[in-house]
Amino acid sequence: MEFSTLHVRQGRPCPPMPSSPVAAVVDELAAQLPDRINQPRLITEGDQTALLEALARVPDPRRRRGVRYRFAAVLAIAVCAMLSGARSFAAIGEWAADLPADARAGLGLTGRVPGPVTIWRVLVRVDRAALETAIGAWIQARLDTIDTAGHQPPQRRRRVRRVLAVDGKAMRATRHGTHPVHLLGVLDHARGVVLAQVDVDEKTNEIPLFSTVLDQIPDLTDVLITVDAMHAQTAHADHLHARGAHLLVTVKRNQPTVHTRLKTLPWKDVPVGHTTTGRGHGRIETRTLKAVTVPAGLGFPHAAQAIGDHPHLPSDQHEQEEDRGQAPPAT
């Protein structure tokens, strides 16, 4: 974790401060705004206004007495500075100090610019969940605007199902700190955009927060949700079924009954639906996918289909795996 030593005007050093925890919220915001119509897009005055309006919905934890700067303006400084590459309180403060007068006015600053200590005091007390929601709403609105501007009427294009991935991620900048940050996010497969995320507390895991993060997305009707084996939970299937969504989940031995029943399905009699060949982990691997309608009584609620993933190694690589005492990947 990075640390910065700052100095106030009196020359007295401030205590070392860890890198901004807001990095857990906006660390990858630059990648969240892809080029939607193959042309670079600048953030307009309307985008700035929309950002300030979104950040104004975040509750201000400060007392009214002694407040010098608008809360939304301080948050806007942090967001824009981190979009520009700042990754510490000191860097955010330096970025704000270098702003020209017109840029300060665009961020809602009418007088002095808040220093890094002021920014630190604000950000360490901000409601992270509310900030994530506000920034996510601003990103989604801007993407919708760009998509609308570059939209062309489709010509008998086949219907494409919306696919969202729910997955957790440990924030690299906080991994070795006292309180590492772990986020559970919802990623749009087609856009590559995180639509929602929640902080996973150290005393819990991703499972109880599955419905919480998906509740941030208003409409999941006919949406396909992909998850890893951790989320092969019957409660998750019930939740998505109630919201009209579909679930694609990997089943491993954490669900032994379902896993055994899936392995006993007549896969040899099922035709291959798709084949792909890839290189990774020092080997070439061919994978075949087979899909079959599952019978009632599989042991997992609302189950309709099963997909078998069958990896195959070339014979020489298979022998090398056995020589090293490693078995080939399991089905």
Explain what you see.
With 331 residues, this protein is α+β, with helices and mostly antiparallel strands. It folds into 3 domains: 3-147, no CATH class; 158-250, Ribonuclease H-like superfamily/Ribonuclease H (Nucleotidyltransferase, domain 5), CATH 3.30.420; 255-331, no CATH class. It is built from 12 helices and 10 strands. Strands 5-4-3-6-7 form a 5-stranded mixed beta sheet. A 3-stranded antiparallel beta sheet has the order 8-9-10, with no helix packed on it. A hairpin with a 4-residue loop joins β4 and β5 (193-200). The longest helix has 22 residues, at 128-149. The protein is elongated and about 75 Å long. Residues 1-41 and 318-331 have low confidence and may be disordered.
**What sort of overall outline do the alpha carbons produce when their principal axes are compared?**
elongated
Derived structural class: alpha+beta
Please report which band the strand proportion falls in: under 5%, 5-15%, 15-25%, 25-35%, 35-45% or over 45%. Answer: 15-25%
Looking across the biggest beta sheet, what order are the strands in? Answer: 5-4-3-6-7
| Largest sheet geometry | 5 strands, mixed
- Radius of gyration (CA) equals 25 Å
* Count of alpha/pi helices: 12
Mean pLDDT: 77
Number of strands: 10
Distance between the termini: 40 Å
In sequence order, what are the helices and strands, one letter per element? EEHHHHHHHHEEEHEHEHEEEH
Total individual domains: 3
Low-confidence parts: 1-41, 318-331
Q: In percent, how helical is the residue content?
A: 25-40%
